[in-house]
Structures are given as structure tokens and as C-alpha cells.
């Protein structure tokens, strides 16, 4: 009951902080928008033709050049989310389609990394000799920024979408590989000795003794990898263009639509939070803690 009360108080405090941030936003933007409106009206003399000639435009374009107000953000959120799957050509797709492409690339690259990192991590964790042989290569390749591989990927693969998947693969493999090897290497000796005493074959020992014991650590690596992958895909799509939430963000910035840029940033953060929550729940399912 105490834990539930603390959680409820924390949620209420988060809501208050959110409302306070919105209040600060409102105070900071509304007077500014009002001043722009007054200046534009006085200079133009209520003449739209004069506004266009002087490059000042209408009130909407004046507000567009400044930081968006809460009402503008509300309109942007409604417009983007009310029709998320429209498709009007290569450079005009709904936010749902953009998210679909981004999540598809992240999922494919993450899955490929998982298929390699999990078995290789098992081998490294169970064999000190292989660990000593491969550790220098891992330590050299791990710190390299995933985006540093993009020029090589574009040159060899010659496809921007597949290159983005390759970058996700590169950034996802290391946390999973290292955490899998660490979890396997640190399985309690007592459990392994019991399996040896019972003459359990290596295949059954790997799946019914080592895997359950190392599962929390493996899920931690997967959780870290997914967070990095979602972070990297935005930057990769901003570089290669085409489709995806990163391309959408960069395209809206080129259109000088700050409201859409903030909308994209908010959506990226929300999706990232949901992905992290999903892996957090999976981690709790395999954890032995109460």
C-alpha cells in the first residue's frame, strides 16, 4: 500500500510539473505572438498586398517564424494525428506511415543483431579462451559511432533504406553481445555443478540452466540496444532521407515549421518511452526479484 501511495504521489507530481511547464510555455509565447501581430498590423496598414510586398506576410506566417504557441501546437497535434496514414507522394506522407518505416528498420536491424549477438554471447561467456581472442575486436569496434559506418554502408550496399538497417544492426549488437556474455559467464557455479552431477547434456544445460539464469542480464542488453537503435534511426534517416520519422523531422525543419518539429520530437520521445517500457516489463517477467 505504501508503494502504491508513493507511485500515485509521483504521478501526481509529474502532472504538476507538466502543467507548470505548459504554463511557462504559454507565458513565454503568447505575449510574443501578440507583439508580432500588433507590429504586422501597424506596418501593413491592414493591407495583405503590402505585407506580401514587404515580406512580412499574414499573422499566420508571422507566428510561424516565431516559437509556436500552445494553441498552434494543439492544432498541429490534431492535424497530424487525425489523418496519420495519408499518402500524397514521396515528400508528403502521414506520421503513421513515417513511424511504420522507422519502426520497421529498427525492428529488422535489432532482430539481425539479436540472431548474432545471442549465440555468440553464449559462446564467449562459456569459453574464456574465445573471450580473450575476441575481446580486443569488441573493444575496438564498440566505441565507433554507428553513423560513422553510414558512408561505407551507402558505398557498398547502395541503398539508403538497407544502409539504415545496417546502422541499426551495428549499434544494437554490442550491448546485447556484451551483456549476454557477462550473464552467461556469471551464472552461479552451484547450478552448473548440479547440472554436471546430473550429467545434463550441453544443449539442455544451455537452455534450461544457463539461459534462465542469464535472462535478466540479456534483457538488460536488449533494452539498452533498443534505446540506442531508436536514437540512431532518427539521425540516420535525417542523413539518408526518403521516409521515416527522422526524415519527417528534417523536412519540417526545412519548411520552417517549428510546431511540426516539436510534434516530431514529442512523438520520438513517446515511442522511445513505450519501447523502453515494453522491454522493462519483459525484464521483470524473467527477473527473480519480487
Provide a quick synopsis of the model.
The protein is mainly α. Helix content is 81%, strand content 0%.
List the helices and strands and how they pair.
Blueprint: H1 2-44, H2 48-54, H3 59-65, H4 70-82, H5 95-126, H6 128-141, H7 150-157, H8 160-185, H9 189-197, H10 202-240, H11 245-254, H12 258-285
**pLDDT average, as an integer?**
82
Instruction: Show unreliable segments.
Output: 32-64
According to CATH, the fold-level topology of the largest domain is MetI-like fold
Query: Element order, helices and strands?
Result: HHHHHHHHHHHH
Radius of gyration: 26 Å
**CATH C-level class of the largest domain:** Mainly Alpha
Give the DSSP E fraction (strand runs of 2 or more residues).
under 5%
Backbone structural class: mainly alpha
Helix count, per DSSP?
12
Give me the CATH architecture of the largest domain, please.
Orthogonal Bundle
Tell me the helix content: over 70%
Sheet with the most strands, sense and barrel status: none
Give the tally of β-strands.
0
Shape: globular
CA-to-CA gap between the ends? Answer: 15 Å
- The CATH superfamily of the largest domain is MetI-like
What is the count of structural domains?
2
List keywords for this structure.
290 residues; MetI-like fold; 2 domains; 0% strand
What does it look like?
This protein is mostly helical and 290 residues long. It has two domains: 1-31; 95-285, MetI-like fold, CATH 1.10.3720.10. 81% of the residues lie in helices and 0% in strands. Helix 5 (95-126) packs parallel to helix 8 (160-185). The longest helix has 43 residues, at 2-44. The radius of gyration is 26 Å and the shape is globular.
Amino acid at each position: 500500500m505504501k508503494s502504491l501511495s508513493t507511485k500515485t504521489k509521483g504521478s501526481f507530481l509529474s502532472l504538476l510539473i507538466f502543467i507548470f511547464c505548459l504554463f511557462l510555455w504559454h507565458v513565454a509565447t503568447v505575449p510574443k505572438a501578440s507583439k508580432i501581430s500588433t507590429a504586422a498590423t501597424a506596418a501593413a496598414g491592414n493591407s495583405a498586398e503590402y505585407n506580401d510586398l514587404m515580406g512580412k506576410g499574414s499573422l499566420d506566417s508571422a507566428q510561424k517564424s516565431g516559437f509556436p504557441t500552445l494553441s498552434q501546437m494543439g492544432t498541429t497535434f490534431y492535424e497530424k494525428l487525425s489523418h496519420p496514414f495519408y499518402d500524397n507522394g514521396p515528400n508528403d506522407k502521414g506520421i503513421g506511415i513515417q513511424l511504420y518505416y522507422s519502426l520497421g528498420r529498427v525492428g529488422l536491424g535489432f532482430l539481425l543483431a539479436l540472431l548474432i549477438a545471442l549465440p555468440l554471447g553464449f559462446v564467449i561467456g562459456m569459453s574464456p579462451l574465445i573471450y580473450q581472442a575476441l575481446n580486443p575486436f569488441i573493444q575496438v569496434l564498440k566505441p565507433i559511432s554507428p553513423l560513422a559506418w553510414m558512408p561505407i554502408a551507402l558505398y557498398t550496399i547502395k541503398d539508403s533504406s538497407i544502409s539504415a538497417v545496417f546502422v541499426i544492426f551495428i549499434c544494437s549488437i554490442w550491448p546485447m553481445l556484451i551483456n549476454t556474455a557477462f550473464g552467461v559467464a556469471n551464472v552461479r557455479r552451484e547450478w552448473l555443478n548440479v547440472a554436471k552431477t546430473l550429467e545434463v547434456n550441453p544443449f539442455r544445460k544451455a537452455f534450461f540452466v544457463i539461459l534462465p539464469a542469464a535472462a535478466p542480464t540479456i534483457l538488460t542488453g536488449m533494452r539498452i540496444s533498443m534505446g540506442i537503435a531508436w536514437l540512431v534511426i532518427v539521425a540516420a534517416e535525417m542523413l539518408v532521407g526518403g521516409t521515416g520519422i527522422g526524415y519527417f523531422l528534417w523536412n519540417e525543419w526545412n519548411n520552417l515549421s517549428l510546431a511540426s518539429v516539436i510534434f516530431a520530437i514529442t512523438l520520438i520521445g513517446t515511442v522511445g518511452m513505450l519501447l523502453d517500457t515494453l522491454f522493462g516489463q519483459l525484464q521483470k517477467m524473467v527477473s527473480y526479484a519480487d
